[in-house]
């Protein structure tokens, strides 16, 4: 029971991280600077935890020659995933910023399982799993497209073709980011086996991501200033995104051996959906308020049913 409750809680906190990092971006003026701050804080947090538990941070350099090159790029995929979420949040709101990457994760997860990518255990794409994926797609369409159409109809207004295309480009970016997020999870899972420590794997992933973001910010010459948007003091909680991200990674690392990957995904998804609905409906953490509709709730329930069918069938 404790593991189930923990799964819901770590799912709830991930949408909070996206809101927090989006607020941080407003104060630092760049999504890449916001990502760097978040990754740096998360790396330091994981370093302390890893030292306390494993009493070491790094590994033998011989592993670089003994293991495939892709084993070390999970952190870079995490950078893309986190930065895309920061970019998506003000464009699409909390609910879509959660469900579109989640849809991408499910698609990539099916590919990884079917072909055994990243040394994952092969799980062929059965008719039941395919039916679950179709159910998830229906849930996405209901939540995103149908709810948007009903909203525009209710408001008696139309969106320009150019603006509509722009929104769908953002949505496709969210799906792509989710696919990279799934690849990161698979890579980090294998890295944990190689290092004999899930904690150490999580730290290495964050450390690589931090190094990648340092290079990106240097190349882009990102702004190095802290402002106060709307002439209001910056909230203390805008620095907590990295800690929440680290807790999310650690939570998944802890739960998968206990519940299994399938049940972990479903339980965390329930928390993700609940957290995103709460943030959108109440406008928490200085986010734009987007009241939740019955159509969105129905779509999310369809998605959860599809995910359950994929992983628990």
Can you characterise this structure?
With 313 residues, the protein is an all-alpha fold. It is 78% helix and 0% strand. It has one domain. Helix 1 packs across helix 9 and helix 2 packs across helix 4. The chain is globular. The two termini are 21 Å apart. It holds the Pfam family DMT_YdcZ.
Strand content: under 5%
SS content category: mainly alpha
Low-confidence stretches: 155-159
Major sheet: none
Order of SSEs, N→C? HHHHHHHHHH
Transmembrane segments: 28-49, 70-92, 98-118, 130-151, 167-187, 199-220, 236-255, 262-279, 291-312
Protein name: Integral membrane protein
Pfam families: DMT_YdcZ
Keywords: Membrane, Transmembrane, Transmembrane helix
Secondary-structure map with pairings?
Layout: H1 2-28, H2 31-54, H3 63-66, H4 74-115, H5 127-154, H6 161-195, H7 198-220, H8 241-259, H9 261-282, H10 294-312
